[in-house]
Amino acid sequence: MKVFLTQAAEDCLWAIWDHDRLYSESLADSFQRDIDRFIRDAIGANPEIGHVWHAPRGIRRLIFRRRHNIFYALRGDAAFVLFIFDGRMDINQQIAEAGLDVEALITRSED
Q1: What's the Rg (C-alpha) of the chain?
Q2: How many CB atoms lie within 10 A of CB 14?
Q3: For the whole model, what pTM was predicted?
Q4: What pLDDT shows up at residue 32?
Q5: What does each of the 111 residues of the chain score in pLDDT, given as a tens digit?
Q6: What does the alpha-carbon distance between residue 83 and residue 61 come to, in Å, rounded to a whole number?
Q7: Nearest 5°: CA angle at 70, between 74 and 13?
Q8: How many CB atoms lie within 10 A of CB 43?
Q9: How far is CA 61 from CA 18, 26, 69, 81, in A?
């Protein structure tokens, strides 16, 4: 299955990278490579691997390294990663700030 990162997900990854680079730029780069590979391999090979997080909107959650929450939705033969949050962050606040119109997030990522 093809896996796409929405603009919101890419923005989340940049925020994580920006935070991690304060400690080590090589650590930040390594983390980005690892999470990108994990997302594409895990979701691409088994789209239903994540637990259903919000059934009405078809949102699933997958956890990376016990700390990072990957929220994604399946549409047709594609998976769209909506957000990636550090589990220590207030997820509700992060989603409120980014919005939760799944179809709009997916549409923006296809542009």
Answers
A1: 13
A2: 11
A3: 0.77
A4: 85
A5: 899 999 889 888 888 887 777 888 888 788 889 999 999 999 999 999 998 988 888 889 999 988 789 999 999 999 999 989 876 665 656 565 555 666 766 665 554
A6: 10
A7: 115
A8: 23
A9: 23, 27, 6, 10
Task: Tell me how far apart the alpha carbons of residues 1 and 41 are, in angstroms, rounded to a whole number.
Answer: 10
108 Cβ contact list (under 8 Å, min separation 6): 6, 7, 8
In whole angstroms, what separates CA 100 from the centre of its chain?
13
